[in-house]
C-alpha cells in the first residue's frame, strides 16, 4: 500500500517542486484556508499548546499567533517540496548564512562541531550549509516507516552533499570518524520529545516542566566536540537567515545538562520574540509534569 501511495504521489510532488516559488505560495495560501478554516488540522493541539505556554496572552493574541503559524506551516510544506529540485543559486538567495566566518575558529583548532537547532523557521533548507564549510557535514533524522518515502527524504536532504544519518546510527558513525581523525559538523534538531521512560533529565521549556532530549550534550562530552546553536530567522516569506551562535568549546567542563539548558534558553528567546515560526502542531508538552 505504501509503495502504491509513493508511486501515485511522487510525480505530483516532483511537478510541484519544479514550479516557481510564487506559484507554490499561491497554493500554500489555498492550503492554509483548507487546513485552518475547513479541516482544522491539529488546530486544537496548536491552540492548547499556545494556551499552555502563553497564559498571559489574550485569546485574541493567541488566535492571531495560531493563524500566522498555520500560514507559515503551509509555506514550510511547499518549501520542503521545492527542496527536491531547488538550485544552489536559488537556495543561497533564500537561506543566507550571516556569519560563516565564525567556523574559521573551529577549522583552525581542528574542532568537530555539533550544531543544535530547533523546529523554528525553516529547518528543511539547512542542507545548503554543507556548501559553506570545510568539515564533513552530517544531519540526524528519524527514518520514516515507508522505505520509498524515507529514501526520498534522504535524497532531498542530501541534495547539496551532506550525509544524512539515522538517530540510531549517528553515535557509531561519528565515533568511527572521530577515531579516524575526520572533522565533522553534525546538525541535530534537539527540541524533540523523548520517549516516555527513556529520558534522564527534566527541565522547563517555555516555563513547562518536561522531559529533555540530552543526547546532543552527552555526545559532545563523550567526543569532546564544540557545540553551536543555529539561529534561523524568517526575514519574509520564502527568505531566511541562519546565524551560528557558539555555545561551548569545552563541553566536559560544564555540569551535566547545562549545555542542554543553554540550547533551550536560545530557542526560547526566539520563540518569545516571534512565536508564529515555531512548530506548534507538535505535541512537545504531552509528557509535562502535572501539578
From TrEMBL:
A GO molecular function annotation here is: acyltransferase activity
Could you identify this protein by its name? Lipid A biosynthesis acyltransferase
Q: Name one GO biological process term.
A: glycolipid biosynthetic process
Membrane spanning segments where? 12-39
Against InterPro entries, the record matches this protein to: LipA_acyltrans
Q: Does the keyword Phosphoprotein apply?
A: no
Classify the main location: membrane
Identify the Pfam families for this entry: Lip_A_acyltrans
Organism from which the protein derives: Aequorivita aquimaris
* GO CC annotation, single: plasma membrane
Amino acid at each position: 500500500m505504501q509503495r502504491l501511495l509513493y508511486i501515485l504521489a511522487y510525480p505530483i510532488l516532483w511537478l510541484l517542486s519544479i514550479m516557481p516559488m510564487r506559484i507554490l505560495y499561491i497554493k500554500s495560501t489555498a492550503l492554509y484556508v483548507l487546513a485552518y478554516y475547513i479541516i482544522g488540522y491539529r488546530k486544537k493541539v496548536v491552540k492548547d499548546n499556545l494556551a499552555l505556554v502563553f497564559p498571559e496572552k489574550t485569546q485574541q493574541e493567541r488566535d492571531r499567533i495560531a493563524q500566522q503559524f498555520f500560514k507559515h506551516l503551509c509555506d514550510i510544506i511547499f518549501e520542503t517540496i521545492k527542496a527536491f529540485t531547488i538550485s544552489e543559486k536559488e537556495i543561497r538567495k533564500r537561506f543566507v548564512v550571516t556569519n560563516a566566518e565564525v567556523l574559521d575558529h573551529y577549522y583552525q583548532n581542528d574542532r568537530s562541531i555539533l550544531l543544535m537547532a530547533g523546529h523554528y523557521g525553516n529547518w528543511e533548507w539547512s542542507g545548503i550549509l554543507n556548501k559553506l564549510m570545510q568539515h564533513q557535514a552530517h544531519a540526524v533524522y528519524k527514518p520514516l516507516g515507508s522505505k520509498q518515502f524515507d529514501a526520498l527524504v534522504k535524497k532531498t536532504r542530501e541534495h547539496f552533499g551532506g550525509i544524512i544519518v539515522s538517530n540510531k546510527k549517528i553515535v557509531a558513525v561519528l565515533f568511527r570518524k572521530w577515531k579516524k581523525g575526520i572533522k565533522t559538523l553534525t546538525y541535530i534538531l534537539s527540541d524533540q520529545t523523548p520517549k516516555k521512560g527513556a529520558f534522564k533529565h527534566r527541565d522547563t521549556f517555555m516555563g513547562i516542566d518536561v522531559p529533555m532530549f540530552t543526547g546532543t550534550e552527552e555526545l559532545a562530552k563523550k567526543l569532546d566536540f564544540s557545540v553551536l546553536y543555529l539561529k534561523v530567522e524568517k526575514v519574509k516569506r520564502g527568505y531566511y537567515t541562519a546565524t551560528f551562535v557558539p555555545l561551548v568549546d569545552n563541553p566536559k567542563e560544564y555540569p551535566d545538562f547545562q549545555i542542554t539548558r543553554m540550547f533551550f534558553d536560545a530557542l526560547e528567546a526566539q520563540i518569545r520574540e516571534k512565536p508564529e515560526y515555531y512548530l506548534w502542531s507538535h505535541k512537545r508538552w504531552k509528557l509535562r509534569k502535572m501539578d
